[in-house]
Amino acid sequence: MIKLYSYWRSSAAYRVRIALNLKKLEHEIIPVSLIKDGGAHKQEPYTSLNPQGLVPFFQDGAVSMGQSVAMLEYLEEEYPQTPLLPQDSGARALVRQIVNIICCDIHPIDNLRVLHYIQNELGASDAQKKIWYAHWIDAGFGAIETLLTCENRDGPYCFGREATLADLCLVPQYYNAQRFGVALEAYPEISRIVEACNALRSFQAARPEAQADAA
After folding, report:
1. What is the distance, to the nearest Å, from the Cα of residue 56 to the centroid of all Cα atoms in its chain?
2. Which residue of 106, 112, 177, 190 could cross-link 140, Cys pair, CB 3.0 to 4.6 Å?
3. Residues 129 and 137: beta-carbon distance below 8 Å
4. If we measure between CA atoms, which residue out of 201, 184, 196 comes closest to residue 18?
5. In whole angstroms, how far apart are CA 190 and each of 24, 25, 120?
6. What pTM did the predictor assign?
7. Residue 31 — very low, low, confident or very high, per pLDDT cuts 50/70/90?
């Protein structure tokens, strides 16, 4: 059985939970606290599994890996039912463009360890931390909003009538932006897409509040 080491509020784990649900793959969620006792992700035995000390971590039989995008690509190749990438290569590239804006340009500099660093090591205040967070959300979402508005879409999701990897990455990042109080009125297209995605059971079951370790 597939195992996903996950933290309820991890947007990276959230992406993979959605994919597993959409593909209807039997799996086990193994909670890894990022908070309790300084974070189980920084301690043995978890660091023996994932030396990077991040969540999520993924196991499928003999296959093990960190990094959520690698997991999503693996699931797409190994379990092609309910495809999360379009068949057309150009359309796949557009999906990956959105994925990369979120997973390469927004998330890495807005995640928990970076926020802790700028606050604890560089002395940023809570207000400054929120300004930092909102700045990078706006930089990424502004580009995504323009791309999605210009795209001739026929359906409620980022690229048509079926959810893709773009939607799987967008919804958790939007959730985090709401959590940090970022004003999102400037992104009506993104907001409409997120609302459509969150109407699906696969997305609802993956939400942070639906997880067993939700605090």
Report:
1. 10
2. 106
3. no
4. 201
5. 26, 27, 33
6. 0.95
7. very high
